[in-house]
Each structure stands twice: as structure tokens, then as C-alpha cells.
């Protein structure tokens, strides 16, 4: 249930600008202030609650100006959207800091033509701030506020907001964003040319510590692997040469995007079985592409976001996600949209195979009714780069599981502070490693590498081919890199070293929990070898 906030509100209005300091954080510059001990305690408490520096946010003007971050070529484009379309902005919030949300609203209103902006639908998902509601009601007649009464989750809150929106095009935002100059017309133009297009701006970061606006340097395509980890791909040559024109992207990031309202509901919105958060961006991306639409990233539109911990965790790969509900959400998406390729997903995520989920009859019926294409078509036509290198059907290129030394089988290889460590195994999948088709030994987004003096370290994985690839040798159960050097446990220091391979050295032998099923495959990749 939800109800609409109307005029029956007190006239007592809180001034949310009484702490603001003129020009602090202006033009997206980082902000710093001297703090007392009391300030530090207050800031720490607010940071724990809101997951960013809310204390500083209270002191940055609500109407701060940002620079124009667009490519200069964008200024040459002419857009016809102002005379032809209206827009509803849908913002769903949970426990959002008032000043940060108000800065989002002010940025939308000041950077958007009134001819385009029909309404802002703001959905309070659980525990609304009455002072904030009164302030918004008094200051912004264009904002329609809804209260979900009980906590329903961001996906359901967005659906509720979209259900009362009346604009021709829906634009979904989060409550801790700032839009920049000229952000909206470039998102609308491709939709006016083809109403089955979904557009997404380039999403820049706003520092959660200093509120500095941090421009993303290079346009990328978002995609995913079999574990549903997000990966970012370089643009193909045609898209690169056409910049800053829009380019296709296999997946939405999902935090901010524009879609034709009628087509959104034609697609069924989001699956009503998706709860809380997580999996919604992947579901809508597959639905759009497989059911006749396309997704375009739009370089001439830029929006900044504070990346909150909860939202990042919601988009974590399900096999590493601590939330059971998020795991169930991703499982629903896979079971509806992956067709026979879901077997490959479950091979990497065996613990999710037996999760129970609500009935899938409605989303499957919708897919049949819309005559949507197969996941095989999506792999070959939408994402050929990831088909060839990541979403290939021959999974012999990988081994996955916990990595344990023979000399200490109750201990697992892990990472701490940028260094590989050996520690007692946990009863979770947070210690799973993948030997990728690029011969990378990968843990989450970190990869083992060998430095110039043969030390074994961990660093953030790249999409480039590694100079020192890893190979797993079945015969000797060893990891080989950098010539004929093997990964070896240093028993005295409970650490890792790289030593000359010797099949008689037990400290060089390692078990991978799920490697046996890969060993039986006939098509072995070079990363899985049978001899040194």
C-alpha cells in the first residue's frame, strides 16, 4: 500500500540550508573543513547511517553549480525533444540524507527545461522524514510524493512511482545524484527516433568523502560474465570513431536511464518477483534487447552519483553476495532469460541451483507473448565480444572454487591488503577463485600477479592479457607462472612464494574444490594443462 502526500501538511518548514557555506564544493571541487571532536563523532554516526559524508553534505550549498563536463563536440548537436515530449523523473529513496536528496532535486530542476519536465515522482520507501516531506511539498510543487508505508524495496518503489507517472518518457534516478548541464535532451533524442530504445548517460562518480565530481575518463560498455560479475569492455572501433554519438551497450548500469513509458509497461516493467534490490538492471537489459529494443550509452549526457555500499553490494555477483534475496533475484533472471545457457551459470554458481523462488509463470508467459529472442541470439548479436572471450559455451577454459594447499587442507588462499594470504577456510563462497580463459587467477575483482622480483601479489584485474599467465597442472596439482616457477606455500610465514617447479615439493601442490568436473572435459584450454 502507498498513499499520496497532499496539501494537508503543517506550514512549519525546516530550513535545510542553515548550515550551508557559500561556494563550498562549487563547480564540483572537493570540499574540506576543519572539524571539532564533536563534529568528528557526528560525522562518523551519519557516515554509518547514510554510507557517505552526510556531515559535509549539510554544509555544501543545495544549489551548487557544476562544470560542463561534456565533450565540446556535444555542443554542436541540435535536439528537437523540447517541443515534442514530456518527462517524468522517478526517484525512489530509502533512508536518504535530506541535504543530498534536495541537492539531487535542485540539480534536476535547474538543469532541465521546464518544457520537458512534467513532474518528479518521489517515492519514500519506509520511514519517511516528515520535515523533509514538508520542505519538498512547500518548495517544489512539481514534486509528487508517495509513501510506501512499509519497506518494499527499491525495485517495487520504482514500479510504484512509474505507475502514477504521466510523462511520455520515464527517467529513473537515485536520490544521491547530481545531473549536469544539458543532460536530458541527449537521452531523449534516440527514444524519439525509436521508442524501443533505452538510453543511459555516462555515470561519473561523486566522492562520498569530499563530494568532488570525478569525471569518468573513457567511455566503456558494461557487460557481465557467467558469474554475473560486471565487466567493462573497450568500445569497438566503429563506436570509438563515432564518439561522442551514442553507442550500444549490452547491459544497463541501471542507476539512471530513460525509457518510453508505454514501452516500459509493454515490457511488463520489472518482474514483480524481484524483491528489495539487485538483478533489476540485468533483467531489464536482457528484456530490452531480447524483446526487440536496444540500449544506448549517451556520452553527451553526464550524471554524477555517490556510490553507496548497499547499492554496490546489490549488484555484486550472486555467488559472492551476502543477501539471500539478491541471490534469488538473480536466479529468477537467469531461469527466465538464459534458456539452456543457465546450465553454464549454475556450473559456476552451484549453490544457487537449489534456491527456491516464487513462481516464474508470469515472466515466462510475458516473454512468450512478446515473442522475445533467445539468449543465444543475445550472445551472438548484442555481445559478440563477451561471447568470444567470456560468455563462451565451452567452459573448459575455467576452473573455479576454493584453492587449498595439500599441506594444510583446512586453509584457503585469500587476499588481505593487496597481498595473497593463507587463512582458515570459511563456510562461504567468498574465497572462491577462478582460473579465467585469459589465464588469470582471479578472486572477485583482484588477480594474482608476479612482480619483477618474483614476489606474488594481488592487484585489480585488467582486461588485458597478463604478462605472467597462470596455468594449473593436473598431474602435479600445481599453479605455474613466469616460466617454470610454481606457486608455493611458505609454511613458516603462512604466505606465498614463487619457486622453481619440483613435483616432489608438497608445498607446491594445490587443490581446487570444483576442478574435477573441468578435468573430464575433452577440450582443454592452455590454462588447464597436464604437464609442465
TrEMBL record:
Its EC number is 2.4.1.-. GO terms for cellular component: Golgi membrane. InterPro entries: GalNAc-T, Glyco_trans_2-like, Nucleotide-diphossugar_trans, Ricin_B-like_lectins, Ricin_B_lectin. It is found in: Golgi apparatus membrane. It is a single-pass type II membrane protein. Residues 401-513 form the Ricin B lectin domain. The keyword Transferase applies. One of its GO terms (molecular function) is carbohydrate binding. GO terms for biological process: protein O-linked glycosylation. SUPFAM superfamilies: Nucleotide-diphospho-sugar transferases, Ricin B-like lectins. Pathway: Protein modification; protein glycosylation. Transmembrane segments: none annotated. Its cofactor is Mn(2+). SMART domains: RICIN. Pfam families: Glycos_transf_2, Ricin_B_lectin. Keywords: Disulfide bond, Glycoprotein, Glycosyltransferase, Golgi apparatus, Lectin, Manganese, Membrane, Signal-anchor, Transferase, Transmembrane, Transmembrane helix. CDD domains: pp-GalNAc-T. Belongs to the glycosyltransferase 2 family. GalNAc-T subfamily. PANTHER family: N-ACETYLGALACTOSAMINYLTRANSFERASE, N-ACETYLGALACTOSAMINYLTRANSFERASE 4-RELATED. This is Polypeptide N-acetylgalactosaminyltransferase. The lineage of its organism: Eukaryota, Metazoa, Ecdysozoa, Arthropoda, Hexapoda.
